[in-house]
Amino acid sequence: MTVQINYKNGDLKKITGNLVLFVGENFNISGLNKHISKDEFTYISDLLKISDLKKEILSFEINSKKTIFLITVKKNIKISGIENLGASFHSFLNHNKKKEYFLSTDTINIQIKNFAGHFLHGLKLKSYKFTVYKSKKDKKIISINVIGNKNKISNQDHLRFKALEEGSFFARDLVSEPGNILHPDEYAKRINTLRKLGLKINVYDKKKLKKLGMNALLGVGQGSIRGSYLVTMEWNGARNNSKPLAFVGKGVCFDTGGYSLKPAKFMEDMTYDMAGSATVVGLMKNLAIRKAKINAVGVVGLVENMVSGNAQRPGDIVKSYSGQTIEVLNTDAEGRLVLADALTYTEKKYKPRFIVDLATLTGAIIVSLGSEYAGLFSNDDKLSKQLLEAGDKVKEKLWRMPLHKNFDKLINSKNADMQNINYVGGAGSTTAAQFLQRFILNKTPWAHLDIAGMAFSKYGGALNSGGATSYGVRLLNKLIEDNYE
């Protein structure tokens, strides 16, 4: 189902079609009497006495040509609640045969700027479906005509919503692609297409990475016939030469676990082990589309963790870009090896104000937090507070987890500077984050978001219909909007 949004002028009383109106909490319709006829108002008032007021949306068939849909709005609703209402309305449309609607918020007194914009934003985010490989496409087109004095959206706000939607959908597309299509070679090409938006993009291939000394990243990808890459995306939107904000993502396009092989059951889900990188790419696309007034850099490590005669072995020792050596005791703890080189490179080259990395890093975070929160680990209280607040506003929630020097002894190695797993067991997510922290060499404010439980949903969420969620794009955009623009 495709949803088309049109903005038109019109008189609500003269519309003879499907009219979508907003009313007060518990279907308080006192604001409707100015916008519909007296007979329609009386008719709806009578039907409301026998209706289920626990629902969010009710419909009233006025005659064979006109139906009025009422959406109840809570008195103290927040922006996230408005977007969720939009998503609920999309689900309602999916089960309705009507193809054209007229929508207005003039019937309700709400002091939230861009109420209609946020409602339609939630509807659009919910509308996403990945159907590239479906032989039979859903050709249903729904037209929503937005009318009324309160519903006009400025060009700037329209661009902001559009940028978030396109960035989120691009991230979802990347995560949804199968591993035989979106391998590292193809992924690097798709990122390169974003040059047209004004992003400066550099692609470092195996030869360049070897010269730089990124052996931790290269070790993960050496078993694949595909390339391994580090890709940087720079957006220079500030008028000054201020330090950039940096975002780093894990891009393991498919993860077999290597010789520490994963169980066959659900291995097909490992196409989304690059979701952290997809969030970074989607965020950078969003910033470029809306011409964000900040300097930012996105860095992603793209590899494929395969089994072959050339694959990394348990017990191998590699020297990272930082100069520190790593004993690889488990080849399925590969994401931290990719991020290790990417983090140090980002810090050294760009000297950013902060670094936020995202990764589907550990199953342990799902044991801890399920699919309700992503894990937040950080060396900086200010950055943590900003992230927690941004996540709460867009309902991409975070829960701060501990870091402590006592965890370091669990990843110290007898044969190298460190090992890539905790040999004792327990605290899997924390020791992984503790490992990453060793590659922040100059005390740059840093946060690690373990999004393993949030990047993909089999059942769907408030603003997605199942599959890739693009978790983190809206969170990090909000972080930037509220604190750095």
Describe the 3D structure.
This protein has helices at 38-48, 79-94, 115-126, 155-176, 184-192, 206-212, 215-221, 275-289, 335-350, 364-369, 381-394, 428-437, 473-483; strands spanning 2-7, 18-23, 57-61, 67-72, 100-104, 141-146, 200-204, 229-236, 245-255, 295-305, 316-319, 325-328, 354-359, 374-378, 398-400, 418-419, 446-450, 456-457, 467-468. It is an alpha/beta fold and 485 residues long. It has an 8-stranded mixed beta sheet, sandwiched between helices. It has a 6-stranded mixed beta sheet with strand order 1-6-5-2-4-3, with helices on one face. Strands 11-12-16 form a 3-stranded mixed beta sheet, covered by helices on one side. The chain contains 13 helices and 19 strands. The relative contact order is 0.12.
**N-to-C CA distance:** 36 Å
The count of DSSP E runs of length 2 or more, i.e. the number of strands, is: 19
| CATH topology (level 3) name of the largest domain | Aminopeptidase
Summed up, the domain count is 2
The quaternary structure here is single chain
Could you give a short account of the major beta sheet? 8 strands, mixed
CATH homology superfamily name of the largest domain = Zn peptidases
| Rg for CA atoms | 25 Å
Low-confidence stretches: none
Relative helix content: 25-40%
CATH architecture of the largest domain: 3-Layer(aba) Sandwich
Class of secondary structure makeup: alpha/beta
Q: Based on CA inertia axes, which overall geometry fits?
A: elongated
Instruction: Determine the mean pLDDT.
Output: 95
Strands in their spatial order, largest beta sheet: 7-8-10-9-13-17-14-15
